[in-house]
Amino acid sequence: MTNTACLRAFLCSVAVSASACLAAAAERPPNIIIIYADDLGYGDVGAYGATALETPEMDRLAREGMRFTSAYSTSATCTPSRYSMLTGEYAWRGDGRGVAPADAPLLIPPGSTTLGSILQEAGYYTAIVGKWHLGLGTGNLDWNGKIAPGPLEVGFDSSFIIPATVDRVPTVYIEGHYIYGKDEEDEPLRVSYRQRIDSSPSGQEARDTLKMDWSHGHNQSIANGISRIGWQTGAESAHWRDEDIADVLSSRAVEVIENNKDRPFFLYFSLHDPHVPRVPHERFVGATDMGPRGDVIVQIDWCVGEINRTLDRLGLTENTIVILTSDNGPVLDDGYKDESAERIGDHKPAGPFRGWKYSRFEGGTRMPTIIRWPARVPAGTVSDSIISQVDFPATFAALTGRELQENEAPDSFNFLPVLVNPEATVREHVVQQGIRNLLGFRRGDWKYHHPSNANTTAWETGIDLGSRPYPQLYNLAEDLGETNNLAEEHPELVEELHAELEALRAAGRSRP
User: Fold this and answer.
1) Does residue 343 sit in the same domain as residue 491?
2) What is residue 8's predicted lDDT score, i.e. its pLDDT?
3) Mapping DSSP to helix (H, G, I), strand (E, B) and coil, where does residue 75 land?
């Protein structure tokens, strides 16, 4: 079946009448926007029960689209989730796909099949704006020359990115293959994670001068009054001001939409909030009673609103698929003293779930996920079907009629049927990766934790990673908080789930 025929078939399958089906066949393919928050928890959004802050723009997406209650990132940390979402392969299948330093080489081999390349082949203009964190170059990167390979070599037509995380150096944007905004008179940018190259006072030495104090780590080079992980010198004119990042990224995302309004486009809008350091723009300071973490969630909502308002203004809302989700679960103290724990009050960032960022408990990987497509997805619907971000490549390949080969997107399932019927089942199981490659395995209502002797907590955060030297088994239908270990009561089920997980590992794929 051709790309166009496949798309028409799907559109017709959800049309309410023959005339509507005929009209749908004449439409252009839908635009696609993924809004990817960083460390946003299941309980941080009004549509998922948050009451301590207001998120009207995210809630609007839920009112006008489908809200998922069992949607997952593949990992409880950022780099592996992003890798899996773009490639359709669980990151734990390969080495070197953990949390990447900013000077890591590109983790996705150039020319690989990715979500971006699939949509490029279908005639989409593809763009990434925001956090990348999947490595750049091939090693020993010269930040002052051509920075490649990167997003442009793995399926994107344009890129405006934060190289890694905002708490790491370098504190510069990369546009295409080059540092954005660097003055020719600046000293060259130098970056090191191995030895000190910055003679200026560090965050440890000049702690009393910082606009935000650090609690652990994050005490090396200072930029914009905030100390970071790693050392950098040079390119002073190109350094970002943290307070402006959301505005800069949103304006770039709006430009992508405006410049491509007359053709199908895919925008991967990758926010950095509410990741640390949490430094909201001045107009959002005090927006909540929870301090900077609450304030930057309101700032996220404003960013979502910028997308909503732009689509409305250009008449693109009806036929644009907007996906709102997050790379992993929430965290409070993640290296800076921003009172996130002290001012949390009754707010529950992970909602009803146990666990946080870094953890294989549900709170680490079960994500707020909303999909709005007014032309085809019924408004105000809720789906309990299990889906994962690793499913994006297969889903959009199916939408465009692209048949995946055996070695492409090996863990990606097509969840288009769920958008037609929210009760449809497209996958029975999902693998969840915590830090240190701790794996959890959900099949139906049962959740199995593979035994591990790894450290039980994550660094100074004290977060329980779920590591135990014995198996854990939870019935999520009765125990969302994963508090009652039923492994001893159901040894045969433990053995069955363990064998199934090991078989998925050995097979190198899980897609049928």
Assistant:
1) no
2) 52
3) strand
- Looking up tokens 């191995």 gives 194
In a domain, 211, yes or no: no
Mean pLDDT score of the chain:
94
The residue-averaged pLDDT of 287-314 equals 98
Number of domains in the chain: 2
Domain boundary among 399, 420, 441: 420
* Predicted confidence (pLDDT) per residue in 157-172, tens digit: 999 999 999 999 999 9
CA distance between the termini of the chain: 20
97: CATH: 3.40.720.10
Residue 97: partners with Cβ closer than 8 Å, 6 or more residues away:
79, 80, 83, 91, 107
Mean pLDDT over residues 241-260, rounded? 98
DSSP string, 93-138: GSSS-SSPPTTPPPSSPTT---HHHHHHHTT-EEEEEEE--S--SS
Opening angle at CA 423, ends 7 and 373, nearest 5: 40
Q: Return d(Cα 351, Cα 349) in angstroms, integer.
A: 6
Distance CA 3, CA 120 (A): 12
3-state secondary structure of 64: helix
User: Domain span at residue 105?
Assistant: 28-189+234-420
Are 456 and 464 contacting, i.e. CB atoms less than 8 angstroms apart? yes
Single out the residue of 400, 415, 377 nearest to residue 8, CA to CA.
400
For the record, the structure tokens of 9 come out as 């078939």
CATH number at residue 485: 3.30.1120.10
In terms of domains, do 149 and 289 share one?
Answer: yes
Indicate if 463 and 337 belong to the same structural domain: no
Quote the pTM value. Answer: 0.95
Q: Kindly tell me the number of DSSP H helices and DSSP E strands found in the chain.
A: 11, 22
Q: How far is CA 108 from CA 35, 79, 137, 212, in A?
A: 21, 11, 11, 34
Tens digits of residue pLDDT in 370-416? 999 999 999 999 999 999 999 999 999 999 999 999 999 999 999 99
Give me the phi and psi of 304, to 5 degrees please.
Answer: -60, -40
Per-residue model confidence (pLDDT) at position 437: 87
Stretch (H or E) spanning 253: helix 245-259
512 pLDDT band (50/70/90 cuts)? confident
Q: What whole-number distance in Å separates Cα of residue 183 and Cα of residue 382?
A: 50
Q: Is the separation of the CB atoms in 400 and 84 below 8 Å?
A: no
User: Position 72: which residue type?
Assistant: Y
Task: Decide if pLDDT at 23 tops 50.
Answer: no
Task: Tell me how far CA of residue 3 lies from CA of 111, 125, 394, 400, 414, in angstroms.
Answer: 21, 16, 14, 5, 15
Answer yes or no: do 251 and 370 share one domain. Answer: yes
Regarding whether 356 and 285 lie in a shared domain, the answer is yes
